[in-house]
Amino acid sequence: MAETNIKNVVKEKYGSAALRVATGGSSCCGAAPAGQRSLDPITSNLYDSSQSAQIPAEAMLASLGCGNPTALANLHLGETVLDLGSGGGIDVLLSAKRVGPTGKAYGLDMTDEMLALANDNKRKSGITNVEFLRGEIERIPLPDNSVDVVISNCVINLSADKDAVLREAFRVLKPGGRFAVSDVVTRGEILAEIRKSVLLWVGCIAGALAESEYRAKLDGAGFEQIDVEPTRIYRVEDAREFLSGQGLDVDALAPQVDGKFLSAFIRAVKPARANGGACCGPTCCN
């Protein structure tokens, strides 16, 4: 599956999702139509009522995630946060409120329609410590050692070059900075019919890494204190939901993916004494 092909399909799919929200619809990460978003086993019921009340309804409708990284990332006042693949801006706006006016929340997205929607949601929210950037998560347009926390919500699995994403996340984090993302991971062998489908890649499934592979890639990028915490395990009933409409034999495939896909909260830390001469005190350590 060529990287360029995946990127183009992702941009088209997510651009269309943003336009649907802008014209009064909703969007989803899986196969369910926009009007049936509540049935999607991946994207439904991620934010509680207190969080949804803090942001414009359009930001909630544009949510394509598989978790709620803002609820688990333990953000602090004054921190700088970067959301990879920020979409309509829900996690950026929630993060900005958590870090307060002395902090900053960046959102990075490659889709013009999503950026337009996110900036409109920023305007409606009145939150000012937010900036949305156009770019790709494999090439983050921020300086080295510039953010305290990197978050993401079911986006890294869409990248065809996850090693580049994790290296870039490591680069922009300050020494001691935290990586705290929600993503889809797998357990056990996954059928080739699932892996080869571009549509399922965009649906947050086919690009998912195995738990052990995710850990290994984070370790290879330089992270430590790596933890993968399952938040939802998708059963056969869920599999029928996200496999439908993909031109596959759902009855045959659904039982074979039962329990093999799960949403997880993935944590890691950039060492305080990171490679590349990072400072570890009043004077720089060598």
Low-confidence stretches: 25-39, 276-286
Proportion of helical residues: 25-40%
Average predicted confidence as pLDDT: 78
Q: Mind telling me the C-alpha Rg?
A: 18 Å
Main sheet characteristics: 8 strands, mixed
Number of strands: 8
Helix-strand topology string: HHHHEHEHEEHEHHEHEHHE
Number of helices: 12
In percent terms, what proportion of residues is strand?
Answer: 15-25%
Report the principal-axis shape: globular
Euclidean distance between termini CA atoms: 42 Å
Structural class: alpha/beta
Account of the 3D structure:
By secondary structure, the protein is of the alpha/beta class. Helix content is 36%, strand content 21%. It is built from twelve helices and eight strands. The protein has helices at 3-22, 49-52, 57-61, 69-72, 90-99, 112-125, 162-172, 192-195, 198-202, 211-221, 236-243, 250-257; strands spanning 80-84, 104-109, 130-134, 147-153, 173-186, 209-210, 224-234, 261-269. Strands 1, 2, 3, 4, 5, 6, 7 and 8 form an eight-stranded mixed beta sheet that branches. Strand 2 (104-109), helix 6 (112-125) and strand 3 (130-134) form a beta-alpha-beta unit. Helix 1 (3-22) packs parallel to helix 6 and helix 7 crosses helix 10 (211-221). The longest helix has 20 residues, at 3-22. It is globular, with a radius of gyration of 18 Å. The model is unreliable at 25-39 and 276-286 (pLDDT under 50).
Q: What's the topology here?
A:
Layout: H1 3-22, H2 49-52, H3 57-61, H4 69-72, E1 80-84, H5 90-99, E2 104-109, H6 112-125, E3 130-134, E4 147-153, H7 162-172, E5 173-186, H8 192-195, H9 198-202, E6 209-210, H10 211-221, E7 224-234, H11 236-243, H12 250-257, E8 261-269
Parallel strand pairs: 1-2, 1-4, 2-3, 4-5, 5-6
Antiparallel strand pairs: 5-8, 7-8
Helix pairs in contact: 1-6, 7-10, 11-12
